[in-house]
Each structure stands twice: as C-alpha cells, then as structure tokens.
Write a structure and sequence with these properties.
Strand order of the largest sheet: 16-18-19-14-13-20-21
CATH superfamily of the largest domain: Aldehyde Dehydrogenase, Chain A, domain 1
Number of helices: 16
Distance between the termini: 51 Å
CATH class of the largest domain: Alpha Beta
Strand content: 15-25%
C-alpha cells in the first residue's frame, strides 16, 4: 500500500517508533478525508511494559510529590503554548466547534494544573500518611500507622474517543503525581490529539524516560502484559468492560481496575415547580445545553428528563424551542454551534439507537429538521432530537428508554406522578454517573439528593440561588469524584486527592511510637 497520509509515531521504550503495518486511518467527520494513520504492528509490547516499570517507575518514585507536581506544572506550560494546534486537530478529527473543543482541551489542561498544585500541598514526601496512629494495647509505646506508598507497577489507560485531551490528563495527572508511570492507549478514532500532546511534552524533555508512553492503534495484547502491581483504567462500552473484568490479568493476577461504562444520566425537576419558574427555566436551559455540547457525545450527558406530569407539554415546548435555535454543520463555520459526530460508525449507531427508542417514544423535536451549514448528507452531522413519553404510565412501560443509551444529541422527556415515582424512575437507570436536581425547596432538594446518592457518582443540585454559579450537569471538576455504581462501571476517578488512592498501596506499619513519629515527620522516607 502506498502511504498517502502521515503515520503517527508511538512513544515506546523511551523513543518514537512507527508500526510496521499499513495502519488505520483517522478521518474528518465533515469531509470524510483521511487525516493521519496509526499503527502499533511490530512493537515489542513486553519490552515496552518492562521499560516503563523499571525506568519510569524508578525515576518517578525517586522524586517527591512536590517535585512531581513541578514536572506536571512544566508539562502544563508546554501544552498551553501549543493550544492552537490542539484546537485545529480537534476541529479536523473530532468535528467539534471551538466551545466544544474547549471542554476537552482546556478542561484537560485545567485538571492537569489542579494536580500540579497538589504536589506543593503534599510536600517533600515519598509516601502518604493514612489516618492517625492507633494503640495496639494499653501501653502507647507500640502502635500501628497506616501509610500509602506508590504501587511498583504501571498504569495502563484505555481511553474513549470523545475526550482525547481530558481523558488523557484526568487520568495521567494523578498517576504521575503518585509516582506511577503511564501507558496511554487512546481510542483509535481520535488518537491524533492525544499523540500530539504526548509528543509535545516528551520532545520538551519534561518527564523521566519511561514515565509516559503512548500507543496509537490496536489494543490487542495489552492486557496480557499486565502484572500484579499494575493498574488499569478503562473508559468505554459495558461489553468491552465485561471482557476486561474476565481477563486473567484481573481474575488471576489481581490487577486493580477502574471502569467507566454506559450511563443513563438524569435531570429531575421537583414537584410543585410552575411553568416558567426559575427552576423550570434552569432545567430547560441545562437540558438543551447538555444535548448539544460535543453533539451529546459525553458520558455525563443528560439522557432522561423527568418532570411532573402536568408540566410535560410545557417542558417539551420549552426544550424544543431552545433546540430549534441550534445551528448544525461544519465546525469551521463560525455560525455553527453543533458540530459532527466523530465518524460514520458513530453516526449510524446514533441513528439506529433513535429508531430503537422511537418504538416506545414520540418525537418532540426532530434533529432531521435542522438544515446543515457548510455540510451535506455525507457528513456525520446530526441535529438534536428530543423524544418523549406522554404520560406517567408510559414512563413506567418504556423500558428501552431506561435501558438504552444513545450516545449522541438525544434525550427523552418522561413525566412522573409524584416525587416517589420520580425517584423510582431515576433508579431505573441502574446506576449512573450523574443526576441533576432542579427546584426551589431546599429541604426537598437535600432529601432527594441523599435518596439518589447511593446510585450515582455525583448529584448536581441546582436551586435558583446557585443558578448563575453551578458548574454544569455534565462538567466533571477535578475536585469531584467521577464515576458511578452499577451499569456506570462501579469506578471512581478524580475527587481531588482521592484520585491518588488508586495508584497507591495501603499498608499497616506496626512499630514503636518513636519509629512512627520519625516516619510521620518525614525523617524516614521510603526509597
């Protein structure tokens, strides 16, 4: 085969290497033009994994948390200097408008910056003190102290296509701060941006050799290389997550795994809210925003909207009116506010998913009604579609709406009878990343939030006094945990310093009080 587009290099064993195969093409979702190719054929996986553990892990553990934070800060400066190039890649490869690219690119850089600053908070240590020491008997001279030390393995990240920047840095930042080397396997469809960011920081000499590696192409064989003290983080489909959980690396070698999978996130307007009230308008605005940001290709996007039965028609009209204003098409046109789905495969999956849901729901706003700007039917552009179920009984009966996530600009409006019914319907999602609550009664908001907390990673509570301040239903802030129970994968990421727990091993040290006091004062540090 004659190579007509650039083949991206992989950073492996501390050097840039090309695959020996013809590779897989990455495409512009508007024009269909091939942009670059990726390939990992012929790379020695075992040697690369061992290099990361031996070279990268040893070098990172030799640094203190403060020093690692300084490394992250230096990387951030390099990335900020190249932001324009990242936006160009996102427009070409992901089909996102500038504001949507910012969610990914600037969101990733912001998260990296937060963890860089945490290095100063943790100081000149090589381990974390976990809680207070405790007596083991009446005499206080012999006690127990729990500590956390960096795992002596590596972190393998298998990431999703929708956040090639944020998905990279929200995982890599806490891992590197912890002293754990990172191997990134970005989703093939949008691997270009991830590869370019890694290339920039690597070429700037920011990280020790082996601390940061990237493989662009097939993931075949990666799990086979994992050893007992490695960790694995996966973002993607529930089907792939099931394969990962059944792999011998997990079942036999006890590799620690974090999974983020499908999620039918919800927005709930509490009872006793009137049409046009502040809470009503806040819900309408946020639903429309969540449906259109990144063309609905967010794991945290609102998929189900619950409103009192009496407000169903009003909510349908208000949300539809906002969606009708969305300009859809080529993200290079400044008038466009909603770009493309990432590729034809995703476009077809969303169309098929819509048809599946429409067997149990009516169309309230049809995405096909949007004229495309600077794009045609060969592009992967699709307008936002709002579906609905007319009555509360239908909300109970429409099982497909509660079981199927359509990963695009699609959501379903569902009426409920009372708050108890609404909470039960929200739980039909079987565990989600996030639910947002809208209302003016702070007591009911608090009670509903606690009722739903067990089945969500995050509950976003919006009352009118927070209307201008809240960070958004779908925005994952680094200070908050990201993940969810049940079908959402059961994992946790971020959450400030909590993210470091995944990359550390907890141990109990039993010793004299004098030894433990020296340890906690950092007069004795792990090698």
């Amino acid at each position: 085969m004659t190579q007509t587009t650039e083949l991206l290099a992989n950073f492996w064993e501390g050097r840039w290497q090309y695959g020996t195969g013809s590779g897989t093409g990455l495409y512009d979702p508007i024009s269909g033009a091939e942009l670059v190719r990726v390939d990992v054929t012929g790379l020695d996986l075992a040697t690369g994994f061992n290099f990361a553990r031996a070279k990268g892990g040893t070098a990172l553990r030799a640094l203190t948390y403060r020093q690692r934070g300084a490394v992250l800060s230096a990387a951030l400066k390099v990335l900020q200097a190249n932001r324009d190039a990242y936006y160009e890649i996102a427009t070409a490869n992901s089909g996102t408008v500038k504001n949507d690219s910012a969610v990914d690119i600037d969101g990733g850089l912001f998260t990296l910056g937060v963890y860089a600053k945490m290095g100063d908070t943790l100081g000149d240590r090589h381990f974390l003190v976990d809680g207070e020491s405790a007596r083991l008997g009446k005499d206080p001279l012999f006690q127990i102290q729990h500590v956390q030390v960096p795992t002596r393995g590596l972190a393998l990240f298998i990431n999703a296509f929708n956040f090639p920047s944020w998905g990279l840095w929200e995982k890599a930042a806490p891992a590197l701060l912890s002293g754990v080397p990172v191997i990134i396997k970005p989703a093939t469809a949008t691997a270009w941006l991830t590869q370019r960011m890694v290339r920039d920081v690597v070429d700037a000499g920011i990280f020790p050799a082996g601390a940061l590696s990237v493989l662009c192409g097939s993931s075949v064989g990666l799990l086979d290389q994992l050893q007992s003290f490695d960790v694995l983080s996966f973002t993607g489909s529930a089907e792939t997550a099931a394969v990962i959980r059944s792999h011998p690396a997990v079942t036999q070698r006890s590799v620690r795994v974090n999974i983020e999978a499908d999620s039918l996130n919800s927005a709930l307007l509490l009872p006793d809210e009137a049409q046009g009230s502040e809470s009503f308008e806040l819900l309408v605005k946020e639903v429309a925003r969540e449906m259109t940001v990144k063309s609905g290709q967010k794991c945290t996007a609102i998929r189900r909207i619950f409103v009192p039965e009496a407000l169903y028609q009003a909510a349908a009209a208000a949300i539809s009116a906002r969606l009708a204003k969305a300009t859809v098409g080529n993200p290079r046109n400044e008038a466009v506010r909603l770009g493309a789905l990432v590729n034809r495969t995703q476009f077809n999956a969303v169309k098929d998913g819509l048809e599946y849901l429409k067997t149990q729901a009516e169309v309230l706003h049809d995405g096909a009604s949007h004229a495309l700007v600077d794009a045609d039917s060969t592009s992967c552009c699709l307008g936002p579609t709002l579906l609905g179920v007319r009555n509360a009984a239908g909300s109970d009966a429409s099982d497909r709406v509660h079981d199927t996530e359509v990963f695009g600009p699609v959501a379903t409006l569902l009426p409920y009878r009372d708050l108890g019914h609404a909470l039960a319907l929200v739980r039909r999602g079987q565990g989600s990343l996030v639910c947002s609550l809208y209302g003016s009664d702070k007591v009911v908001l608090a009670q509903a939030a606690l009722e739903l907390a067990d089945s969500h990673g995050r509950v976003h509570i919006i009352s009118p006094d927070a209307g201008a301040l809240h960070t958004g239903h779908g925005n994952v802030m680094p200070q908050s945990i990201h993940g969810g129970p049940g079908r959402a994968g059961g994992g946790e990421e971020l959450g400030g310093l909590r993210a470091l727990n995944f990359y550390h091993r907890r141990a109990a040290l039993q010793a004299s009080t004098a030894v433990l006091d020296l340890l906690k004062a950092s007069e004795v540090q792990t090698p």
